[in-house]
Amino acid sequence: MINIILLIKQVYSIAKERDNNIKKFGKKRLSTSPEGYKAYKAYLDSPQYMKIETANQILRDYLESLERKEVGMLLTIMYLGKDRNYNEQASYTERLNSLYSSLHAGSNKEIEVNMLMEKADLSQYLKEGAKIIGIDV
Predict the structure, then answer these.
(1) How far apart, in whole angstroms, are the C-alpha atoms of residue 79 and residue 123?
(2) Helix H or strand E segment including 78
(3) Whether pLDDT at 87 is above 90
């Protein structure tokens, strides 16, 4: 297992690039009209969409290269930052271990990678979660 601080910083950096591409190039709205469908199909062939897909694949490949417990730890930190549901009196380690156990994190790597990937604000959640456990990214 690699250093948790280094792991968080590496994933945060990759996720931030991906999140920025989604915000910059993502389709803002979809129309169900025939013209809207044509526009959507054209968007799927655009360089902007390819930037998002490339950034998504880089993040997915990196997450899939990690050990199961590392992915579980990242999921835990992401949920700390997303939900901000923790005992403020607990130590950083207790905060992390408590949520890790309640999530059953580290039990299914494939599902946990998908859960991380589906968050458009993953970098922000990781940053906030890291802050809650005393790590500055």
Answers:
(1) 12
(2) helix 68-83
(3) no
- Treating both helix axes as pointing N-terminal to C-terminal, what angle do 68-83 and 92-103 enclose, rounded to 10 degrees? 110
pLDDT of residue 52: 94
Distance CA 51, CA 53 (A): 5
pTM of the complete model:
0.82
Cα 69 from Cα 54, distance rounded (Å) = 26
The shares of helix, strand and coil residues in the chain, as percent rounded to the nearest 5, are 75, 0, 25
Other CB atoms within 10 Å distance of the CB of residue 137: 17
Q: What is residue 16's three-state secondary structure?
A: helix
Q: Are 60 and 112 in contact (CB under 8 A)?
A: no
> Would you call 89 exposed, middle or buried from its count of C-beta atoms within 10 A (0-12, 13-18, 19+)?
exposed
CA 85 remoteness from chain centre = 18
Note the pLDDT tens digit of each residue in 16-33: 999 999 999 987 777 788
CB 75 within 8 A of CB 116: yes
Burial 48-83, CB ≥16 within 10 A → b, else e: ebebbeebeeebbeebeebeeebbbbbbbbbbbbbe
